[in-house]
């Protein structure tokens, strides 16, 4: 591990906050700026920061699940969110809000349902794929027969 | 299970043959009504939006083919079940043959052009798998590939032809297309349909794949490459005659191609020593005769051709299976090593004699009727009569010699065979060919049963009334004299068979070998493909980016010039703060261009992104700004990691070519944005989203509601693409790692 002490300490302090914000952004996304994609990017930046501070192996352990598995779970969650609409309304990806009702006072109750499941899926896909590519990039070697990239002069 | 010699297939091996026999019985129930002129249509919707239906039609033409496919199918399946009794691959063989039979039935029964095409391709594919059945043998693989390529090209042409026909006629129902000979694309249609039919039915110059296809097991050759599949091209020509036939180019093309195939093939048949190969070449001769007859167009020519389809299917399948009997019972198919087997293999001998007599066209076999009708048809042709008659005469005489090779050669003279004690194989194997051989005789003696069906078929093909009478004795006429002349010539050819073979072997070296030409063409294609790939795919990121950017730039500029809207003028009266952002963006961009350090370039690139994010904020697109900023952060991180691994830094020198590309694209995007600003944008959708977002989708952030609700399907697709891109990136990066290790 050759990163600076400041980066490591800072990362320890910042990552939990970042993750909290990422989840907040995901949850509030339906009414305020945010959503699964942006939240996912924030969480991915967390992963990148952690990886830069502690190295790939430590970051993999920290994530517990392999990154592409996380992405796979996300894709499955998004699909499930869509299929929920099929069960409830007979139409793929139609929003289902079991605890949320529209009345004269606007929407009341708990805003959870298929749409949130779908957005969580997007979140997980973004985190998973970014982490996977990042780790692979860090671990990748330099191919020996690498073609010379754009060094000619015209 | 471990000892391959002890394998014996269970009773299941008779199931496919039984299925075919039941289907045969089913189609027989149509015989009476169809002979009476009735037609049965079965239509099911398939792709209604494109006007494609699964439409099937049972008329005389399709019924006859259906009967041949199922009837000869039952016999060949039964034969295969015994032929491969001790072979573990029997299951695969029977499955493939059953698939083929289903496809072939679909082909002849289809009334929808697309249905026909799909079935046509299915037969090509199953044929490929069956020719390559002995896939351990290089020769089998080569032949299978050749058959696939030749008939596959024909399939593509056929598809183009059928679609053009459908568009010209306004319907894909073949029976409703009407006369298309005056369609503006008639010649193109004809060309495509001919290529399809000629490749499938192995007409000159596409004939060479068929002898190669004899690498398939004998029951397959008898079924696919003699009785059914190779007749698909003939069927197609017959089926489309009402739509496309009767023109001069139709008549002459079919006559010339058919005659060339017929004569060339019958000569080369005599050259062969392998009896199966010899039969393959005579099959080519038969196919040529069929094409010529259908081209003739008179009712004798067409009726003769249609009768000959039946004749040929009977005797040729029987002979193929007989050669299989010889192979099994006596140990070889080489004509030189077989003789005098008439006592040792009496059943094979009788079958070969009966079928061979029909092939030679001797009365009272059905082959005689077929040949008489072909002569009659050739003589009645208005223009090409003498030509067609001469070609038929030569080919028929050579056929007699070929019939002698398979029916007389192996059975007379001194007994000789590689196997010590040659004998007939089990009854399950000879009963099928026996039925076919006896059927050929019975049909010749009682042709009345065939007559009604042939009459209906001739009408279907020619689209008007009038058909030849199918009967044994047509009286003393020119055709009869031609028949007598044929017998004399044929006997002469057989007498001097050795001499003819000898000279053909010498000739063989002088004529260009079709296989060689095919190889040269194939290699040329492979080399061109390799050259293109090398040239286009040089593996350098810079080249790919250049091509991408140039294309994008051209598209943007084309859109700008093609557009009719007003290009907005630049708004220069903006707050000072906005100018600052523009200045930062410009400064960062210039830094990227001229810095010698990659790290500085990356950081500057991040600066450009951040400045643009601020612009988004200024126009209150908070979501876009957040995304932009976060993506920018990740890009900097990623590019930094990637660039650190690249050994050389950029020089910072100006590269004029790249500068031009960048300017073209950059200016294009700028003008493109201005053009969009100047155009009227319909706001209906925007208004709908704004109004419906809260009451219907429970969200006030319209951007997010669009992403996860209104257009969630798009998002789902994008998310899937992200995962796929991730997998691809992982694969590419890991490949790089392996090279290092």
Structure description:
The complex is a heterodimer of chains A (154) and B (741). Chain A is built from 5 helices and 2 strands; from the N terminus they run ααααββα. Chain A has 154 residues and is mostly helical. Chain A has one domain. In chain A, α2 runs parallel beside α5 and α4 runs antiparallel to α5. The C terminus of chain A is likely disordered. Among the domains of chain B are: 224 residues, no CATH class; 139 residues, Four Helix Bundle (Hemerythrin (Met), subunit A), CATH 1.20.120; 60 residues, no CATH class. Helix content of chain B is 72%, strand content 2%. A two-stranded antiparallel ribbon of chain B has the order 1-2. The longest helix of chain B has 32 residues. Chain B is elongated, with a radius of gyration of 35 Å. The two termini of chain B are 44 Å apart. The mean pLDDT of chain B is 85. The chains are: A mainly alpha (154), B mainly alpha (741). Chains A and B meet through α2, α4 and α5 of A and α25, α26, α27, α28 and α29 of B.
Order of strands side by side in the largest beta sheet of chain A? 1-2
How many domains of chain A? 1
Characterize the main sheet of chain B. Answer: 2 strands, antiparallel
- Span from first to last CA of chain B? 44 Å
Largest beta-sheet characterization of chain A? 2 strands, antiparallel
- Indicate the mean pLDDT of chain A: 85
- Helix coverage percent of residues of chain A? 55-70%
Given helix and strand content, the structural type of chain B is mainly alpha
List the helices and strands and how they pair.
The complex is a heterodimer of chains A (154) and B (741).
Chain A lengths: L4 H24 L7 H19 L1 H8 L3 H23 L10 E4 L2 E4 L4 H26 L15
Antiparallel strand pairs in A: 1-2
Helix pairs in contact in A: 1-2, 2-3, 2-5, 4-5
Chain B lengths: L14 H14 L2 H5 L4 E8 L4 E7 L1 H24 L6 H20 L3 H19 L6 H32 L16 H15 L8 H4 L5 H10 L4 H13 L3 H24 L3 H22 L2 H32 L15 H15 L5 H15 L4 H23 L19 H19 L2 H15 L15 H18 L1 H12 L5 H23 L4 H22 L13 H19 L3 H21 L3 H23 L11 H23 L5 H14 L4 H9 L1 H29 L1
Antiparallel strand pairs in B: 1-2
Helix pairs in contact in B: 1-3, 3-4, 3-9, 3-13, 3-17, 4-5, 5-6, 6-7, 7-10, 9-13, 10-12, 11-12, 11-16, 11-20, 12-13, 12-16, 13-14, 13-15, 13-17, 13-18, 14-16, 14-17, 15-16, 15-17, 15-19, 16-19, 22-26, 23-24, 24-25, 27-28, 28-29
